[in-house]
Amino acid sequence: MLRRPGRAVLTALGTVLGVGSFVAVLGLTATISSQIDGRFNVLTATEVTVEDVAVQQNEFAGPGFPADAEQRLRAVAGIRNAGVLWTVRLDSTTTIGAMPSGGGNTTTVVAASPGAVAALVPTLQEGRLYDEFAEQSRQRVVLIGSGVAERLGITTLATRPALYIGQEPFTVAGIIADVERKPENLLSVLVPRATAQELWGPPAPGGASMLIATELGAARQVADLAPLALRPDHPEYLKAVPPPDPRMLRSGVTSDLSALFLLLAGICLVIGAVGIANTTLVAVLERTGEIGLRRALGARGRHISAQFLTESAALGALGGLVGTSLGELTVVAVCLARDWTPVIHPVTVAAAPLVGLVTGLLAGLHPAWRAARVEPAEALRR
Questions:
Q1: What is the helix, strand, coil percentage profile of the chain, to 5?
Q2: What are the per-10-residue average pLDDT scores of the chain (382 residues)?
C-alpha cells in the first residue's frame, strides 16, 4: 500500500464514493423527511372538507348546506376561511370564451363563495379577488387561472376583458397564478356562489362541498363542530372529513424515501466493492513472485490470505472514514443552500466506517483466495 500510494488511493476511492453516498443519502433522507413533515403539518393539517350527504340520509331532504353557511361558521373558533363551492351544470353547447358562440366546451365553471376562494389560498397574478359585495349583489365577475387566461388569449386586465359563459358576459376580476389547496381549480372559471345559483340554479343533490381552512391544531375540533353549527336540526346531512394524521403521512413518506435512497446507496457500495475487488485481483497477479517467495520461505495459504484481506480491509476502512466525512459535508452544504436544518442520525455516522471495513473485507475475499492457491514453484518460475 505504501509503495504504490496512487493505486491505494484509487482503490479506496470506490469505497469513499460508496460510503459517502451512503451517509449523504441517509442524511438527506432524514432532512427531507423533516421538511415534508413540517409542510404537511402546516398545510394538510389545517384543511377540513364538509360534504353534502343529505340525499343519502333522506331523498326529500333538499340541499344540505344552508344559504348562510359561512355566517354560521363564524361562531366556530379556529376557522380562518370557509366557503361552499360546486361545479356548475352547464348545457353541452355552452361555451366559454371572449365572444359568445356555439359549440362544445372543455373548461368547467365552479361556483365558489368568497370564503371558499380565500380558503384556496390563491396567489394573484393580476387583478383582485371578488368579495362579499360581489356575492350579495350577484355581480357578473369571474376569477380564472393563468393557464385558462393564456388559452383564452387574455394577457392583461388593463383593457377590462370580458368573458362569455354562453351568452352571459362576465368581467374578469383577477387572474390566479397558483393556489395552495385544490389546484384543479386553476383549470376552472370561478364564479360567485349567488351569481351561479341565480343563472344556473342550485347544485345537484350532493354536488356541493365546503372547504374550511383552520388554525394549526384546530382541524379535528372544527370537523367535529362544523356539521352541528351548519345544520343543528340535521347534522347528519353533512359529513366533515378531517385531515389525515400527520404521523401517518410522515411515516409513509419517510419509509418510501428511505427505501429508494437506501437502494441507491447500496448500488454505490456495490460499485465501490467491485472496484476494490478488481484492483486487489490485479495486485495479486502482479505480485505472484512475492507470493511464491513467501510460500517458499514457509508461509502458508492462510498467511497469504490474511495479508491481502488486511490490505483490502484497511483500504475499505480508510475509504469509509473519508467517505463519512464527505457525506456529512454534502448534507451540510445542501442544507445551507436550501436553508434547511441538517439531520444526521448518530448511528449513521458510527456505522458508515464499519460499512467501509466490511465492504473491503468482502471485496478482498476472492483475490485473497486466489493468492492462497498460488503454487510456490510455479510462482518462482515467473
A1: 55, 15, 25
A2: 66 72 76 61 76 88 87 89 92 78 68 94 94 93 92 88 90 93 91 94 90 87 92 92 66 62 72 72 70 74 82 82 87 84 81 82 80 66 56
